[in-house]
Specification:
By secondary structure, this protein is an alpha/beta fold. It has helices at about 20-30, 35-45, 70-75, 130-140, 145-155, 170-175, 180-190, 200-215, 220-225, 230, 235-240, 245-255, 305-315, 320-355, 355-360, 370-380, 385-390, 425-435, 445-455, 460-470, 475-485; strands spanning about 15-20, 50-55, 90, 280-285, 290-295, 300-305, 395, 400-405, 410-415, 420. Helix 1 (about 20-30) crosses helix 17.
């Protein structure tokens, strides 16, 4: 048998989006809150001689007339295309001059940087937060872009105690991702330090810690299933349920007390900021809704072209001229990016308010099921853009101030199949029913299912139990016992 080796030349055609440094920075601008953005802009005002604070008082959501009609038209034509990015075809290693750089190619990569080195809260202390600690571990343990994206989102939802309060079903719906991917990302996080992080309940938190210690025996699993008896100090019931004698029960309790019920608190907490709305929603005179950006917190800057022209005319080539050109390009980039960011946030918020109109009129029971894809399709953007726009952004409405992501909720079908209810509205109804029950005759989960069925809501008993537990409400048996004690 002979083996022949030959060479051949093949030409292949494909498409990839180039992730230039400037495009990365523009996308990251979307994720910043107005307060973080103001801090970043302040740093650029100090560094760039051609950036000036805009004192004209112009409204960013109507465009800056001082820049002239020509600049406004140019900005409008490039309104969202450079920010609306699908990460599935990005080539991070491509050269900055390759196709796809667009309007960003003239900006130096040494210019206004929102890289990982930028810390919007760098003056708040040197203790690493739980969020940062988990994020570091995520990027060490995974190279899968999808898992990194979902994992980062999950980490954002984990509270200071280390708990994930949202269900994976809701998160999958919100992100438009497969449930299996969300659960895979969560399992990855649940292997991180501190042990027990990413748990959705106290039982799961303790179970994760026992697993890591190698002490998760069948007996301890049974103990965790009945740990609510420990919380109510009902030791006889706990002993019977776990089939333990006094010595074994004492040992099991001692094991549990060595664990940390809130593992996240051993790390520094994220800097607490007063919630400042990014968008205001008010009733309009025509009966509709008026959606406006909070212009008071939006930084306004302009590029001083006259100063640049004067300096450039007196500078003869070389590094000095290159520096001036780079700084002017960076100033123009920031002005355009801030305008595009404002327009994008306003566009997403307007569509969100339009979709959830019944909620604003009639309250939480009328909150419609909604995912990112619905809004993205309506305004012809990518889901990743909508996710960034709504992340850490707050909207002030006549019904209160909410994070934009609050309005994205899973759907629960009606029994007749002609309507859908949001998971949030169903949870609200469960709380309402329990609040109104007779203390000595509390509603069981089965009874709640029957009442909801009578209201055309098709929901399983286990889902009712899950929602009740997520609301921090004890079972009907525990509520009856608590009522008897209060009357004794």
């Amino acid at each position: 048998m002979s083996l022949s080796i030959s060479q051949k030349l093949e030409v292949r055609q494909g498409q990839q989006l180039v992730m230039t440094p400037q495009l990365q920075q523009a996308i990251k601008l979307l994720q910043l809150t107005n307060l973080e953005l103001a801090e970043f802009v302040e740093s650029q005002l100090e560094e760039n001689p051609f950036l000036e604070r805009d004192e004209s008082g112009s409204d960013p959501q109507r465009g800056d007339e001082a820049r002239g009609e020509e600049r406004a038209d140019a900005d409008a034509s490039a309104d969202h295309s450079t920010l609306d990015t699908d990460y599935s075809n990005i080539d991070n290693e491509a050269a900055p001059g390759d196709a796809g750089a667009g309007d960003w190619s003239s900006v130096s990569s040494r210019g206004p940087s929102l890289s990982d080195d930028y810390d919007a809260a760098e003056n708040t202390g040197g203790v690493k937060s739980l969020h940062d600690h988990l994020t570091d571990q995520l990027h060490v343990t995974s190279r899968d872009d999808t898992i990194l994206f979902i994992g980062s989102y999950l980490i954002d939802l984990i509270d200071d105690g280390g708990y994930l309060r949202d269900s994976t079903n809701e998160i999958a719906e919100r992100l438009g991702a497969d449930l299996s991917l969300v659960e895979k990302a969560l399992r990855l996080i649940q292997n991180f330090e501190p042990s027990g992080v990413g748990a959705r309940s106290l039982q799961e938190c303790l179970k994760l810690q026992l697993r890591d210690l190698g002490e998760l025996t069948p007996g301890m699993e049974l103990f965790l299933e009945n740990i609510h008896f420990l919380g109510t100090h009902n030791m006889p019931a706990l002993r019977r349920a776990c089939r333990l004698n006094d010595a074994e029960l004492k040992a099991a309790i001692a094991t549990i007390r060595r664990l940390n019920p809130k593992p996240g608190l051993q790390y520094g907490r994220d800097h607490v900021q007063v919630v400042v709305p990014d968008v205001y929603v008010t009733e309009d005179a025509d009966g509709g809704w008026k959606v406006e950006l909070n212009s008071e917190t939006l930084p306004r800057v302009i590029a001083d072209e006259r100063y640049f022209t004067r300096l450039a005319a007196s500078t003869k080539g070389g590094e000095a001229r290159t520096f001036l050109n780079e700084q002017m390009a960076n100033a123009n980039w920031l002005v355009r990016s801030l305008d595009q960011r404002a327009r994008t946030i306003l566009r997403v918020a307007t569509e969100l308010v339009k979709y959830q109109d019944e909620f604003f009129v009639n309250g939480i029971r009328y909150l419609r099921p909604l995912n990112l894809k619905t809004i993205a399709d309506s305004i012809e953007m990518h889901e990743s853009t909508v996710s960034r726009v709504t992340s850490n952004k707050f909207i002030a409405t006549p019904r209160g101030t909410f994070e934009m992501k609050y309005f994205f909720t899973a759907a629960i079908s009606s029994r007749t199949g002609d309507a859908e209810y949001s998971a949030e509205s169903v949870r609200h109804r469960i709380r309402q029913l329990i609040d109104e029950e007779e203390p000595e005759n509390p509603l069981s989960d089965d009874r709640l299912v029957s009442i909801l069925a009578g209201e055309n809501i098709d929901i399983a008993r286990r889902t009712v139990a899950k929602y009740r537990e997520a609301l921090g409400l004890p079972s009907s048996v525990q509520r009856r016992r608590m009522a008897k004690r209060s009357l004794a």
